[in-house]
């Protein structure tokens, strides 16, 4: 390392001790004019970053700058102190800089090829200086805490960072304006939704009052007896929402998507228990979007939320949902639970059977959805699929009965 230092214009001596013997420089390079002293240290043995920093500080206390060199592949201390990794390319006589000397170009730092003599010439003349990069180092160079570069490249990085900050501020301004426009549009949609939901609720309230007046409560009684968790849902409404409710007489109305309306003391629907996402048709979702939907389990709640995310019509802020922990065993459910993997029947002549309470009844396609069809779903015996179209019971005589609860 003595020869490259001398070739770079410095006076170089080997094995020069410090004033009190606390350190010894492998090569001490000095300015012929006496303006500076730099220790050139070849560190080939393993050493920690803390250890090499301590040795550097000892030299600095005596007014001597140090530059550390290694030809090892990945010295862990590289960049912790002023340092360079060297290598000798195949067929070359002289050592060249492999890591630690960089230039700023195209938004990142890139390695600069140079011989050891060139590096020392630039360093002694302050044409390159230590710098802490604030932008990425281009692969395969490793990011180092301290590198060597020319002052103009530091200025180039500063300019780049200023420009990046300007672009970032402009982007944030554009995004803020976009978010404001989107929120304004959402507010307009919410205002329209509030009107349509109020209209849907008013229509549902009229239907509930008509059902009460006509005393058409057969499906209501079925739901109370055979829909596990309704009592828990009513208790949740009272305890957490301050609403005293009961099962609506309009149970079976298709606008509730197979769910059970829970109405307050004035006959206004306050919540819907266990609606079926597969039965939310057209714009009927507006009523459900304005109500609390309570499910008999968290699993059924998540199933509904997942299914309605893919629906064509869905509320802008999502559905308001909650769940209760209905016991797994209990009275038979009012509608058979079909596996989520079951397909939809597409048979030309379906062979339908509907499970209602504790019995199975023959069923057939119909032009209109009857009262039972609002709560129960038939299955095709020919293909095993669930039947989604309007249907009706073909006979009031059951095919079979079962005493076990439906699953």
In short:
The chain is of the alpha+beta class and 407 residues long. It has eight helices and 20 strands.
Structural features, described:
With 407 residues, the chain is α+β, with helices and mostly antiparallel strands. It folds into 3 domains: 2-149, Trna Endonuclease, Chain: A, domain 1 (3-Layer(aba) Sandwich), CATH 3.40.1350; 199-323, no CATH class; 332-407, no CATH class. It is built from 8 helices and 20 strands. The strands form 5 sheets. It has a 6-stranded mixed sheet with strand order 1-2-3-4-5-6. The radius of gyration is 40 Å and the shape is rod-shaped. The termini are far apart. The model is unreliable at 329-342 and 403-407 (pLDDT under 50).
Rg from Cα: 40 Å
User: Which parts are unreliable, with pLDDT below 50 for 5 consecutive residues or more?
Assistant: 329-342, 403-407
Largest pleated sheet: 6 strands, mixed
Order of helices and strands: HEEEHEEEEEHEEHHHEEEHEHEEEEEE
Continuous helix count:
8
Strand content: 15-25%
- Please list the strands of the largest sheet in the order they lie side by side: 1-2-3-4-5-6
Any idea what the shape is? rod-shaped
CATH top level assignment of the largest domain = Alpha Beta
Oligomeric assembly: single chain
